[in-house]
Write a structure and sequence with these properties.
By secondary structure, the protein is of the alpha+beta class. It contains nine helices and 18 strands. The radius of gyration is 21 Å and the shape is globular.
């Protein structure tokens, strides 16, 4: 594995000429929402074929100067990650499984023909930003500092080939609840659209996948639902994932099913963490295909008692109702299930340093 030392990277710190006032910051942190406010600083690192990674800077957050011919604007060479910094019970700040985000970032880079970032450099870039903006971590219940590392092709050219210049950045956003409705469980619309196909970019965390979900997501909201669920591209039968979250299905016998990683869905880090926690509880967890018909029939028969979505932003979210063009059905009582809440509580307690961390997931800063 390449390291920061191998890359000969040293971070330069640039002073912010006009940081947010403590009063204005406190007002934002009292009700941070999600993804609408941003901290004062950002990290920027450049890459080109001759020098590799260079010019690592922690400086004021601000607009990015791009040539109109920048490759990202024309050929969509762009990837990103999402992770959080959490306040710990001892007053420190920690990251949750940042090495897994670093590894997935490079998996996405390989799929999009982009240069890999040394994993230690990825983690150090996040460390640097949290150190600069630690005062932006909300103290409200459930608050965290959401971190968004991303990379894009910055070379100015018109032609279908991998770019020769890239820029990597990290920005931060104080975060509260992901869903604005405040409902105890979300409602899901089954989309007729396809998110990803075999051999495509479904397993990469790239903007194009999310752009493809915007029309079906808007359709779901117009119909009164919170999220959209996608079926497979080949048969339009098998459950894949939501617009930005993985799914779990909980059965009356205590077992769980989550769709297998077939290359068409994102390998979620929260998904993987819940796999481990469920197995720690002695539960049977199967990674396998699960159809829309099975979902409907199992919910109606009572065999299926809970469904939940999971991801870094929303953590664990109960699914109460599913609707599509063929009708709708309710899962369990339509509210949060006991196992869903138990697994969420266990995960959050580990993330916040309130419970033992047997898997070594928490990295204190």
């Amino acid at each position: 594995m390449a390291t920061v030392a191998d890359a000969k990277i040293q971070f330069t710190r640039q002073l912010h000429p006009a940081p947010t006032s403590p009063q204005a910051r406190a007002q934002i942190l009292a009700n941070p929402g999600f993804g609408t406010s941003f901290s004062d600083h950002m990290v920027s690192i450049e890459w080109d074929e001759q020098r590799g990674w260079h010019d690592a800077v922690v400086g004021p957050r601000g607009p990015i100067l791009l040539d109109p011919a920048a490759a990202v604007l024309h050929y969509a060479q762009e990837i990103f990650e999402g992770l959080k910094a959490y306040s710990q019970s001892d007053g420190s700040i920690a990251l949750f499984r940042p090495e897994a985000n670093a590894a997935r970032f490079n998996q996405s880079a390989r799929r999009l023909a982009m240069p890999e970032l040394p994993e230690e450099l990825f983690i150090e870039s996040v460390r640097q930003l949290v150190a600069a903006d630690r005062d932006w971590l909300p103290t409200v219940e459930g608050g965290s500092l959401y971190l968004r590392p991303f990379m894009f092709a910055s070379e100015a050219f018109l032609g279908v080939r991998p770019a020769k210049q890239y820029r990597y950045l990290v920005i931060a956003s104080p975060a509260g609840n992901y869903f604005k409705s405040g409902a105890p469980a979300v409602s899901i619309w089954v989309s007729d659209y396809t998110r990803a196909a075999p051999g495509g970019t479904g397993a990469a965390k790239c903007g194009g996948n999310y752009a493809a979900s915007l029309v079906p997501q808007a359709e779901a909201i117009e119909r009164g639902h919170d999220q959209v669920v996608f079926l497979d591209a080949a048969e339009h039968r098998w459950i894949e994932e939501l617009g930005g979250m993985n799914l779990y299905f909980v059965f009356a016998d205590g077992s769980l099913v989550t769709p297998a990683l077939t290359g068409t869905i994102l390998p979620g880090i929260t998904r993987d963490s819940l796999l481990a926690l469920a197995r720690d509880e002695g539960l049977t967890v199967r990674e396998e295909r699960y159809s829309l018909d099975q979902w409907r029939d199992d919910a109606k028969s009572g065999r299926l008692v809970e469904t939940f979505a999971c991801g870094t932003a929303a953590v664990v979210t109960p699914v109460g109702k599913v609707a599509g063009r063929d009708g709708e059905f309710t899962i369990g009582t339509g509210g949060p299930g006991q196992l869903t809440q138990k697994l969420k509580n266990r995960l959050v307690a580990i993330q916040r340093g309130e419970a033992p961390d047997p898997h070594g997931w928490v990295m204190k800063l």
